[in-house]
Amino acid sequence: MLKWLAHRKGAIGISVVLLALLFLYPKMVGRYWSFVLILAGCYFLGALGYNILIGLAGQVSFGQAAFFGIGAYASSILILRLGVPTWMAVLIGGLLAGVIAYPIGIPALKISGHYLALVTLAFSEGIVVILREWVSMTEGPYGLKVPTGTFGPWALKGEPLYYFVMAFVVILAFTAYNIDGSRIGRAFKAIRDGEVAASSLGINLLNYKTMAFAISGFYTGVGGALMALASGCLMPWDFDFRLTIALLAMVVVGGLRSTILGSALGALLLTYFPEWTGKMLEVKELMYGLLLLVCFLFLRGGIVGGLKAVENRVRSLKFGAERFGK
Amino acid sequence: MASQSECHRREGFGASFRIMTWVPSAMTILFDVVITGIGAGVLYGLVGLAFVLVLKTTNVVNFFQGDTCAFGAYFTVIFVAKLGASLPVAVLAAILSSVGVTILLELVGLRPMYKISIIQVVIGTVALSMIMRYLIRLYWGPQVVPFPDLFQDIPLNIPGIPLGSATLWMMILVGLSVSGFGIFFRYTRWGLALRACCQDRQSASLMGIHVGGMMSLAWGLSGAIGAIAGIAGAHMLSVSPEMGIIGLKGFVASILGGANSIPGALLGGLVLGVIENLSGFYISFAFRDLIAFIIMILVLLVKPSGLLGKQVVRKV
Questions:
Q1: Which of A118, A183, B15, B212 lies deepest, with the highest CB count within 10 Å?
Q2: Does residue B299 form part of some domain?
Q3: Per-residue pLDDT reduced to its tens digit, B16-43
């Protein structure tokens, strides 16, 4: 145990510092900026789910917004109509998104690449239509008002909401870290790098692809459920293709191959940047489009990839200096 | 209550009506619904054709195909309203501009990514579509733009066919342009080279065909087709920055017809238009769009090669 701890001194130190920062953040800044971090946290979970699917398992999906929407609507309806405890509603919302995402892995066996992108896009647009038209359940275009959640004695708004969301973010990020390093994560990477090779090594493509979709759906669904709590009102078209693009931009800007760090950096950057510049929502779409293109053209690994390249460069320089003197 | 002239018109068409208050029978409604569906389907087919063209030559699903329709319509409006050009000149100039813009976008934004991964190119087309929609909104605002009626002076009506003059003219235009493209593919040197690229890029380049140029040609043609669809179908699509949505229907059309077959895309468009209209009328108007997507998912699952497409054999 001690050895295990000593081995991970650096990582543990960094996590402790980060956790402390997360804890102190709302005390240091005002209500507004802690709300922005809540949004960033929700988007982070969405982007994390997306990154597990597209970066880790290599499955292209354009339907991520639908999972976000399913999580948001399901949890809100559970709280509103059935009085389910908030934390449980969030989890059930995520699970429902995961369950609905699960069968999408089945067509992923037969079709891949841009056809899969099309199918998932169609799925996502279909979900928006259902959310819009099923008025008796979702209030459709009139908007679903989400009640303030409760957790024990606290009403979830302001600081309690912040800690509630961050608890989910930290736990799920830690879980994702473990998935990344586990047998499942390695299987995902093998499928990404070569399906045929992976299946010839005994990886059951059906199991792992459906699992990738389910895990991704769960993460994104939880993100959506938390977002519903934070925003207080849901509209069907909040969850259309534009949200998918926003999440995709976060993933690509942060780094496709770096599941947790990349998603976190991308979500933070893309949530904070428009707030800092104080520009209206309109510019966001242009920003996402331009960022996607620029990243693909010039910075393929996203921010994390760029940092890694710099690190490698520095290392090789150092190595050269040691070895050959100068 | 149907007017008397309506009754006479119907009678002239061969149906027998004894009473003056004419109640449309189930069959006539069905006929009307199918015909209107074909009207919309023609447009879907045209957009689907542009998809197939790009997909075959460059292997890319072009997500801003729908926005090329917006290019066509908006350029026409700009040329007419801002530069005071006459309508035919404006339409021609708009088609050419759309071609130019599409070629430029592909060359600058997408071409450098081909070698890396096709998925990145596809996401790149999505990004371009977002950027274009934003620019249109920035320049012209989000509202629906009134589009000049191209054939106001020559109204066209076929008795018994419930399609407006604009839709009939649209069908004629689509028919003309499709046959024009057909002739281009079949009988010209460039068309031959393009077909060679569609079949096998590597051997085509070994035969001395400039593959890069042919890719640009294919993208340019897709821009032209999109612009024609946008201009001819402007009355149906309502000219707004979000007009690119038609692109999705074009996808479904091309997949339904077989993603690698050009006649298939047209057939797929017609079938899609009819099915969509039928389901919109008999099931629920709100879920019309859902039907298109369900069709697409089913086709991809059950028969990925579509109606007329060839089975693609995947090799390891």
A1: A118
A2: no
A3: 444 455 666 777 888 888 888 888 888 8
Contact B289 A129 (CB under 8 A): yes
How does the average pLDDT of chain B come out, rounded?
80
Tell me the residue ranges of DSSP E strands in chain A.
Answer: 144-145, 150-151, 154-155, 233-234
CATH number of the domain within which A90 lies: 1.10.3470
C-alpha A241, offset from chain centre? 16
For testing the chain A interface, which of B133, B251, B297, B314 should be mutated: the one with the most A CBs within 10 Å? B297
**Which structural domain range is residue A166 located in?**
23-324
Task: Note whether residue B15 is domain-resident.
Answer: no
* In-domain check, residue A318: yes
Q: Which residues of B touch A (CB under 8 A)?
A: 60-61, 109, 112-113, 116, 118-120, 122-124, 126-131, 133-135, 137, 248, 251-252, 255, 259, 284, 286-287, 289-290, 292-294, 296-297, 300-301, 304, 316
Cβ–Cβ < 8 Å for A11, A181: no
Q: Taking CA atoms, what residue in A is nearest to B287? A: A129
Count the Cβ atoms, other than its own, within 10 Å of residue A195.
17
CA distance A322 to chain B (A): 35
For chain A, the domain total comes to 1
**Nearest CB neighbour to A292, from listed B127, B297, B301:** B127
Say how far apart CA B145 and CA B235 lie, in whole Å.
11
pLDDT digits (tens, 9 = 90+) for B92-124: 999 999 999 999 998 888 888 887 777 778 888
Whether B228 is covered by a domain: the verdict is yes
Q: Does A292 touch chain B (CB under 8 A)?
A: yes
Average pLDDT score, chain A? 84
Q: For chain B, how long is the longest CA-to-CA vector?
A: 73
Position A252 in a domain: yes
Determine contact: A109 vs chain B, CB below 8 A. Answer: no
User: Do the chains contact at B118 and A114, CB–CB below 8 Å?
Assistant: yes
pTM of whole model > 0.80?
A: yes
Interatomic CA distance for residues B268 and B38, integer angstroms: 11
What digits encode the pLDDT tens for the residues A168-208? 999 998 898 888 888 888 898 888 888 888 888 888 888 88
As a whole number of angstroms, the distance between CA A110 and CA A115 comes to 10
Query: What is the CB neighbour count within 10 angstroms for residue B1?
Result: 8
User: Quick check: B118 and A113 CB within 8 A?
Assistant: yes
- Which structural domain, as residue segments, surrounds residue B193? 44-153+162-242
Total number of domains constituting chain B: 1
In-domain check, residue A3: no
| B207 belongs to a structural domain | yes
